[in-house]
């Protein structure tokens, strides 16, 4: 078993085709087929079956692909530790929340290209549960999470806190300077993320404390669908302001901050405890944190309060960031 065989396996799994995999790997098709055959002989089982839509992973193949992906990710991290004389280099994968991607992704890519041209940046988008799982599995190097449950596998640093907003169509008449109490919308149809999404948990806790029962019209873990259903007039939703600032500016939606004291979400930076943090990861993380702080100072991240400069409990401090 060697790296070429593992790369062939993952590329076939991603494309569903030996021919397409060969093109991406810059190899002839028989060479890729041979690498797969040798790998299957080595592990003693078939990893693919030819299905209706091309090469489909067998149950054994699905298991093996997970380990192969992690193995190659670890090798990429090892290479990034061996810094070339030219400066910081390596592959860095950052996990971002859907509500933060539009504001952060483009600027982060530009800043990394400017400051660390030898760093190859990857951005993975997901909700807190997915991102935390990817972080623990080694599929992302650092991630922004909604205030997650404590875990021995990761270290966190609180970065910011922001109020949640009630969101509806323009005719709902919500205004940024007129806060709304959750009780005022208790009788409305609501479109919310599936449990146990972070915002859903906050809303449910606030409703339980206030003795409110919301009417859930639909549940979805796709933020674009969540907003689309509101635009279609199927209900109201609850989101952080950063997720809807452009929609409100274009007149597609109206929104107002919720006045309930416990409807605040906290975003933290999470790094793994189980492995070294390469120099390239530390550098990209520092750019990301600085960028988020600047977004608040410049008024681009409305209603957010910066927390990272406040004293953090010892277990939340990230010593790796400085060395």
Could you describe the 3D structure shown?
The chain has helices at residues 3-15, 18-25, 29-43, 59-81, 98-115, 128-137, 198-210, 223-231, 245-249, 279-297; strands at residues 48-51, 54-57, 90-96, 119-125, 142-146, 154-168, 189-192, 215-219, 236-240, 254-257, 264-272, 304-306. The protein is globular and about 65 Å long. α1 crosses α3, α1 (3-15) crosses α4 and α2 crosses α3 (29-43). Mean pLDDT is 87; it is low at 311-323. By secondary structure, it is an alpha/beta fold. The chain has three domains: 3-80, Arc Repressor Mutant, subunit A (Orthogonal Bundle); 85-160 and 265-322, Periplasmic binding protein-like II (D-Maltodextrin-Binding Protein, domain 2, 3-Layer(aba) Sandwich); 162-264, D-Maltodextrin-Binding Protein, domain 2 (3-Layer(aba) Sandwich), CATH 3.40.190.290. 41% of the residues lie in helices and 22% in strands. The strands form two sheets. Strands 3, 4, 5, 6, 7, 8, 9, 10, 11 and 12 form a ten-stranded mixed beta sheet that branches. A two-stranded antiparallel sheet has the order 1-2. It is built from ten helices and twelve strands. The two termini are 35 Å apart. α5 links the parallel β3 (90-96) and β4 (119-125).
């Amino acid at each position: 078993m060697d790296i070429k065989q593992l790369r062939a396996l993952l590329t076939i799994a991603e494309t569903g085709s030996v021919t397409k995999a060969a093109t991406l790997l810059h190899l002839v098709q028989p060479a890729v087929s041979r690498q797969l055959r040798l790998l299957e002989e080595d592990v003693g089982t078939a990893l693919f079956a030819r299905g209706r839509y091309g090469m489909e992973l067998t149950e054994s193949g699905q298991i093996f692909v997970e380990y192969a992906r992690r193995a190659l990710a670890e090798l990429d991290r090892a290479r990034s530790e061996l810094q070339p004389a030219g400066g910081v280099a390596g592959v860095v994968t950052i996990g971002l929340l859907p509500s933060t991607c539009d504001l952060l992704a483009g600027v982060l890519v530009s800043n990394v290209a400017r400051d660390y041209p030898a760093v190859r940046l990857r951005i993975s988008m997901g909700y807190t549960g997915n991102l935390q799982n990817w972080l623990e599995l080694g599929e992302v190097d650092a991630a922004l999470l909604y205030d997650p449950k404590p875990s021995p596998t990761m270290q966190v640093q609180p970065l910011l806190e922001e109020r949640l907003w009630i969101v509806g169509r323009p005719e709902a008449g919500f205004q940024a300077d007129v806060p709304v109490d959750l009780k005022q919308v208790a009788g409305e149809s609501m479109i919310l993320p599936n449990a146990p999404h972070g915002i859903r948990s906050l809303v449910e806790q606030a409703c339980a404390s206030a003795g409110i029962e919301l009417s859930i019209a639909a549940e979805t873990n796709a933020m674009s669908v969540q907003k689309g259903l509101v635009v279609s007039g199927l209900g109201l939703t609850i989101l952080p302001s950063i997720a809807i600032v452009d929609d409100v500016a274009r007149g597609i939606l109206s929104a107002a901050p919720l006045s309930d004291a416990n409807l605040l979400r906290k975003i933290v930076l999470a790094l793994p405890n189980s492995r070294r943090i390469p120099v390239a990861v530390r550098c990209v993380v520092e750019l990301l944190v600085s960028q988020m702080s600047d977004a608040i100072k410049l008024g681009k991240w409305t209603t957010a309060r910066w927390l990272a400069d406040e004293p953090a409990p010892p277990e939340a401090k990230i010593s790796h960031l400085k060395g």
